[in-house]
Every structure is written in structure tokens, then in C-alpha cells.
Amino acid sequence: MTSTRPERRPVVVxxxxxxxxxxxxxxxxxxxxxxxxxxxxxxxVRTTGRSIPEIFTADGPERFREIERDVVLDxxxxxxxxxxxxxxxxxxxxVADGLAGHRVVYLQITAEDGFARVRGTDRPLIAxxxxxxxxxxxxxxxxxxxxxTGTFTVDAAAGEPGDVADVILAELARALxxxxxxxx
Length: 184
Ligand SMILES: Nc1ncnc2c1ncn2[C@@H]1O[C@H](COP(=O)(O)OP(=O)(O)O)[C@@H](O)[C@H]1O
Ligand SMILES: O=C(O)C1=C[C@@H](OP(=O)(O)O)[C@@H](O)[C@H](O)C1
Ligand SMILES: [Mg+2]
Hints:
Strand content: 5-15%
CATH architecture: 3-Layer(aba) Sandwich
Bound molecules: adenosine-5'-diphosphate, shikimate-3-phosphate, magnesium ion
Subunit structure: Monomer.
Distance between the termini: 46 Å
CATH superfamily: P-loop containing nucleotide triphosphate hydrolases
EC number: 2.7.1.71
Function: Catalyzes the specific phosphorylation of the 3-hydroxyl group of shikimic acid using ATP as a cosubstrate.
CATH class: Alpha Beta
Oligomer: single chain
Radius of gyration: 17 Å
Catalytic activity: shikimate + ATP = 3-phosphoshikimate + ADP + H(+)
Helix content: 40-55%
GO molecular function, one term: magnesium ion binding
């Protein structure tokens, strides 16, 4: 009998815009499931030894997206737990393709709630003259891609991070045991 290494694939991948809570909720969800958590932005920082704003400023957004693509595809092939992507990752076609067949949760946030969570942080894409307007425009541009890429969508403002994690857990359970969906 040949023994092959069991395939490792994420239990679930979180996508959505900046401030949706992917990094925060992802960690809680991983704890509840008893699995590892990987945030691809943290992986980028770890593997390059540089911060995200530093990469954007010194190398430009295109180079950031290349680094991000490579890190995300590597994580999708090697990580067995919960994965949180950076907000723009799914806009890279190779990443969207790489997510095919994975269980992907779109954490959806409104422009108002999301901006309130990220205003004043060092996220390079809101380093604009009018950060709130920039945030609103980018979210409007991306919402359709997030919706299309997600296996299901969860309200990112459904409560505290633990409450949002519970909603995701309930959706995952429903997907595993669809016949229970009708049981109150
Ligand atoms: N459900 C939530 N309710 C309130 N604040 C939240 C919630 N989820 C995340 N946050 C806060 O919003 C900010 C952005 O969260 P983060 O996890 O970094 O989002 P993302 O990774 O999607 O950009 C953090 O300050 C975090 O503590
Ligand atoms: O939306 C984006 O393009 C980005 C989102 C950020 O991650 P979070 O969504 O975790 O904030 C980070 O990857 C980078 O600043 C670019
Ligand atoms: Mg994040």
C-alpha cells in the first residue's frame, strides 16, 4: 500500500473588505474549532520581514499584490485551519481561481460600520485625501466580487467577534447537515 501525505486544505477562508473583522473573527473561529489560524497579511509580514505599508510605499501596490498572491496560494495549499485573507486578495484573478472549491465566507460590512473600525489605522489604501470616500468607493467596487467568491455571506456587524464566529459556525453546520436546516 502506498502512503500519501493527507491533503491539507483550509477548513474555511474568510474574505471581505477592510474592517469586516476577518483577522479578529478568524482567530476566534479557529479557537472554537480547535484548529490553527493563519492571517495572510501576517504571513506576508513574517516572510518578507517588512510591514504592509512599507511594501506598498517602497515597492508599490502591484508588487504587493504579487507577494500577496504567492503567499495566499501557498497557504491555500498547505494550511489545514482557518485562513483570513487581506481585503484585496480576491481581486487578483489567480487568487480568485485558487479559491475555487474552497469553503469561503464573505464577511460583509457596510461602508459606515467598516470605516468606523479602520479610520486612523495605517492601512495604505485609505491613506487618501478623503479616506471615508475612498473606503466607500473601494467597497462598492469590490462587493460583487466578494459576493460571487463567497460560498455564503455573513453579516460582519452581527455582534461581537465571538457572535460573528458563532453565526459562521452555524452556517458551517448547516452546510454539513442540510437536513437539520428545517429543525428549529
Ligand atoms: N464584530 C466586531 N465588532 C466590533 N469590532 C470589531 C468586530 N470585528 C472586528 N472588530 C474590530 O475592527 C477592527 C478591524 O478588525 P480586523 O479583524 O483587523 O478586520 P479585517 O482583518 O477584516 O480588516 C479591529 O479593531 C477589530 O477589533
Ligand atoms: O483591502 C485591501 O486591499 C487591503 C486590506 C488589508 O487587509 P485587511 O482587509 O485585513 O485590513 C491589507 O491586506 C492591505 O492593507 C490591503
Ligand atoms: Mg485583516
